[in-house]
Each structure stands twice: as structure tokens, then as C-alpha cells.
Amino acid sequence: MSDKATLTVGGKSYEFDVVVGTENEKCIDFQELRSTTGYITMDPGFANTGSCYSSITYVDGAKGVLRYRGYPIEEIAEKASFVETAYLILYGELPNAAQLKTFSARLKEHAPLHTNLEHHFSGFPISAPPMAILSAMLNLVSCFHPEVLDVPTTGDEFDRTASLLLSKVRTIAAFAYRMASGKPLNQPNPNLTYCGNFLHMMFSDPYQEYEVSPVIDKALNLFLVLHADHEQNCSTSTVRVVGSSRANLFSSVAAGVCALWGPLHGGANAAVIAMLEDIKKSGRTPQYYIERAKDKDDPFKLMGFGHRVYKNFDPRSIILKKQVHDVLEALHLKDDLLDIALQLEQTTLADDYFISRNLYPNVDFYSGILLRAIGIPLNMYTVMFAIGRMPGWIANWKELHDHKLRISRPRQIYTGATARPFVPIAAR
Predict the structure, then answer these.
(1) Which of 122, 160, 224, 404 is a Cys-bridge partner for 388, taking CB atoms 3.0 to 4.6 Å apart?
(2) Is residue 222 within 8 Å of 316, Cβ to Cβ?
(3) Which residues are paired to 65 by β-bridges?
(4) pLDDT at position 47
(5) DSSP character for 208?
(6) DSSP states along 133-149
(7) CB environment 325-358: b (16+ within 10 A), e (fewer)
(8) 83-104 pLDDT, tens digit each
(9) Within a 10 A sphere around the Cβ of 272, how many other Cβ atoms?
(10) What letter would DSSP give residue 410?
């Protein structure tokens, strides 16, 4: 018999089931709370509210643990490609050789965009944010593939749709960059890896083919792997909320792109670089900015520190930090921003203010420096995040439909005016 939680309100007691997950996470099942008691819970930001059951990603913020389908992120980052990781997140198991070959072939097949779709890029102003273009074009893709608008979550139709989306998102991203740069579009090259193909579409020129460095290919692959999913964050929750209306997969992930765009979510890595650039230009020491961050009357915020879930080190940050060093060393590069970042990290780790508040470097702190070393322009940072997060969005959309969840419809506590008569304009 399962444990019960007792709620006493208005002199009356009610019992609710306690649910335990496979990692011993506990929750009180309040699905019948309103119908039983007439009350609702108030939880702004949903920090204490479970919206779904999920078998995709496990996060233990207190211990700094992240696992995809049970596999530790440290092992996945070291041993798996992004394509393997995407397959794992989508289907629950690592692919065998035959499955990986088929999946990779689908990604190569679906990389090109319809010719008429390419023309839409020229309709955006050069100054258009790449995230706006990405969201709009993802919706447009579905217009050229109407068969994806009502796709099941199993079988060949889903497999085709998922691989189509995973493949075309990088093509859209690269085309958005090329168009904004005033450069001709580069068609995908099926002979290259997933990451190598993206880099080719981004950086090849008519007079010089971009030579994909194995070091950069590996670094970009790692970046995408580390961003592939992260439980019920803002953008993933958005995909689920939109998908719960039975909106198609493309519309749902387009909404996820819009949610990711915010500086408190996917835009944080660009904000870190902007902060490090400001520190460098100022000529002041990192310590000066640390003291500003500690001053409650100073609006300055130290970007890249702290996390909504992790109350210890973000495991992705540790992996990225090492990769940044490896890339810069392999390419014989030096980045002053990395030096500043290291000083900030070393100082904060010894400062009681940051220790007591669990403000440790998060994934965004080093991801921007890595993208900078790869050669990705600043306005594309959040787009890179979106490419990486696509497997998680698709998997969550699939899981939502497999579980046949109801349409999302949070409640509220109304705090406005009570009933009052309408006043004619002459009497106002």
C-alpha cells in the first residue's frame, strides 16, 4: 500500500497518494485536489510542481547529476556522438550499428530544403535575429511537408518526421547565418558528419571549401550532446504545453525556440560573453565585478553563475571547461576572455557569498567561450543551443502524446476588481 499525505483545511482532512519515481523522487499526487477540496496550489514558476511523468532525463541538482535515459552525461559526452545521443533520447536505447546507419542515412536524406522554401530567407531583413528566423522557418517547413502535421508517435512516419526535423534545423540555422552575412547559400554535403555538414553550410565559400577540423568537429559535437535535453526547463515545458493542444511537432518546437530565446534561458551563453567583453574593455579586475555582484544595490549580475536546479557544480560546465582548454591548445589559440572567466571562477569558489548561495559556474559560463573558439558568431549562440536541444524537445512531444496527457490549463487566483456595473462613456 502506498504512502499517503494528509492535508487539513477548514477543519477537514483529505488524503492524497504519495508517488515515488525510480530515483526515489517523491511527490504528492494533487490531481484531484480542486475537485475534492475546492482549493488549488499556488506555485509561481512551478518550482515545486511536477507537470508530467518522464523517462527521458534525470537531474539531481543537489549532487550535480545528469543522466540521459539512465546514462551519466560524463560517459555520453566522452563516448557518444550527437547522432547517437539523439537516437538514445528519442527511442530510449543506444542504437546498434544497423540502427545508427539507418538513422544517419535519414539525416543525410532530409538535410536539403525545398527550393521554394529557400526563397523565404530573402524576405527577412539582414538585421533579423536568427532565433526569429529559426522559429518562423520551422513552421514553414511543415507547409512543404503536410504529411507531418498529423503524425503518430511510433513507426516509420514518426521516424521520418523526427529525422527530418533534426536534419533541417541545422540547414535552416546555417542558411539564416549566410543570408544575414550577404553570402550565397551552401547546400548540405552528405559525405560529411552531422556537425561537419553544419560547419560546411556555415563557412564554405565559392572560392574556398571550409576544411572541417577534427578538433572543431569534436568540440561542436560535445556542445550539442551536452545541450540535448535537460528535463522540464522553460523551453521543454513550452513544447509540452503547446503540444498538449495537439499542435503538430513543428509548431510545438517552434514555440520552444521562442521560449529558449530569452536571456534567462538559451540566451545566457551570449550574455556571458558580453559580460566578459565588458570586463576586458573596462580594464578593471574581475574582483571589481565580483564585489559589484555582491552589492544588493548594484544592478550588475554575474552571468553564468547559479542554476535553477543545480545547487552544486553543473556537470556540463566541468566537461565544457576541459574541452575549451583542449580546443584552444589544439588550435594554438589564446583567448583573453577565458583568462577572465578562470579568474572569476577561482575567486567565487573561495568566496563565502557565492558558496552560501550555491552560485557555481553553469553550462553557459564556458559554452560561449567554446563556441567562440569554434568560430560561431555571437548572434548564433542561442541557435546552436536550439539545434542541440531538438532531440529533447521531440522526445518530450512524443512522450506527451504517448501518455495521452490532458491539455495544459493552469489555474489562477484572481486579484482584480469584483463585479461592478458598466458605466456609459458620458458618465465617466
Answers:
(1) 224
(2) no
(3) 60
(4) 87
(5) B
(6) HHHHHHHHHHHH-GGGG
(7) ebbbeeeeeeeebbebbbbbbeebeebeebeeee
(8) 999 999 999 999 999 999 999 9
(9) 26
(10) -
How many angstroms separate the CA atoms of 53 and 109, rounded? 34
β-bridge partners, 177: none
Residue type, 413: I
Q: Are 82 and 195 in contact (CB under 8 A)?
A: yes
Question: Could you tell me if 116 and 143 are in contact, meaning their C-beta atoms sit under 8 angstroms apart?
Answer: no
Amino acid at 251: S
Catalytic residues: 307, 364
* DSSP structure class, residue 46: G
Cell of 405: 496527457
Q: How far does Cα 290 stand from its chain's mean position? A: 28
Amino acid in the structure at residue 379: N
pLDDT at 1: 46
Helical segments of 153-305, H only: 155-180, 194-203, 214-226, 234-243, 249-260, 268-282, 286-294
Angle at 160 between CA 253 and CA 102, to 5 degrees: 125
Which amino acid is present at 215? Answer: V
Q: Flag the least confident range among 4-8, 306-310, 377-381.
A: 306-310
How far apart CA 186 and CA 98 sit, in angstroms, is 30
CA distance 259 to 378: 19
- Provide the pairing of β-strand 65-68 with 57-60: antiparallel
C-alpha cell at 72: 551519466
Q: Is the pLDDT of residue 258 over 90?
A: yes
Cell 475534492 belongs to residue: 36
